[in-house]
Specification:
Number of strands: 2
Structural class: mainly alpha
Oligomer: single chain
Helix content: 40-55%
Largest sheet: 2 strands, parallel
Shape: globular
Radius of gyration: 22 Å
Strand order of the largest sheet: 1-2
Distance between the termini: 39 Å
């Protein structure tokens, strides 16, 4: 899940040049050590701990270099670079568009070096997935069960994409949710504003410009998945502007924050000790699910494996710490 993007950066610089560029790895930074500082900036608990040191580090470096405006493409996955191949192929299968599906799978398999025999079972599951929304019994919950019962919070969250049921959104539904749900845009805007104020750097996302979004929503899905390529619209549009090593790359992808446990391992002893203190602190024990915190801490092991970065138990432990530090700051 961790990809070295350095060669792609070099290819872009060589193609576009002359351009000033810098590589950043923020060696020594980790999610645990950043908690207090980020709480001071955000003035509230936050969820983006996996890549918090990347957000903060990039803005800090931009500020040091007197950068006034920092462009990013945070919403590009749902606008200009949208294009979910597997979900689109599932639509073709449901609509019995066999010829187009056959051609697309042949080209996609060639691009990805995978046979149709491996793709079809997965696409079949997507096409005919059970739409049930049964509550998941094994999700480790952050909130104390008694507090959840008193507030009725789970009833209030029904119908929202917060991972409380076994239902999942396909990419068509996720795209609609992204742009229709005002709470998502409010959260993004609040986080961006607070960090921008901290470092005197204005964050701007051209891929979320309303005019761009309206145009992208009007484009037929066939333009987004075409010729065995996902994100086909932006890949075709950038021909001649980006090197093909970047523009046509479909096989090498990383996942944001995949290295957070690897980075926090030297501090894991302190992290685990603070979690044990949390479980004994009355400020947290009535609000947070301390029984689950103990269980998740035991589940993760000491030390945890770095490849469990997206384990629900690992995420609960860090989220608990963020809330606990916030409660202590408010005391």
């Amino acid at each position: 899940m961790a990809a070295d993007e350095t060669p792609y950066i070099r290819d872009i610089v060589d193609r576009v040049g002359p351009i000033s560029h810098s590589y950043m790895d923020f060696a020594g930074s980790n999610s645990f050590d950043e908690i207090d500082d980020l709480l001071g900036s955000m003035e509230a608990p936050y969820k983006f701990f996996e890549n918090s040191y990347w957000f903060k580090g990039i803005l800090a470096r931009a500020s040091e270099q007197d950068v006034g405006v920092l462009l990013h493409g945070g919403n590009g996955n749902y606008s200009i670079s949208w294009g979910p191949a597997m979900d689109y192929y599932a639509v073709l299968l449901r609509r019995l568009r066999w010829v187009r599906l056959y051609r697309e799978l042949a080209q996609y398999g060639k691009n990805m070096r995978v046979g149709r025999s491996r793709l079809l079972p997965y696409i079949g599951k997507l096409a005919f997935a059970n739409p049930s929304r049964k509550p998941l019994a094994d999700i480790p919950m952050l909130i104390h069960p008694d507090l959840a019962a008193r507030t009725g919070v789970f009833d209030r969250l029904k119908g929202h994409d917060v991972g409380l049921t076994d239902a999942w959104m396909n990419e068509f539904e996720a795209r609609t949710y992204q742009f229709d749900n005002l709470s998502v845009l409010n959260h993004q805007g609040t986080s961006s504003t607070k960090l921008s104020l901290r470092y005197a750097v204005r964050e701007r996302d051209p891929t979320c410009d309303p005019r761009v979004v309206r145009f992208c929503l009007s484009v037929p899905v066939e333009q987004y998945v075409q010729g065995g390529m996902d994100r086909a619209l932006v890949r075709r549009a950038t021909a001649g502007y980006l090197p093909d090593s970047v523009r046509l790359n479909q096989r090498v992808r990383g996942v944001q924050g995949a290295d957070w446990i690897h980075r926090v391992l030297p501090s894991w002893g302190k992290l685990a000790e603070e979690l044990r203190l949390l479980c004994e602190d009355p400020r947290a024990s009535g609000l947070l699910n301390v029984a689950q915190v103990r269980s998740s801490l035991a589940e993760m092991g000491d030390p945890p494996r770095p490849d469990r970065a997206f384990d629900r138990h690992a995420r609960l432990l860090m989220q608990s710490l963020v809330v606990y530090r916030f409660l202590k700051q408010c005391a």
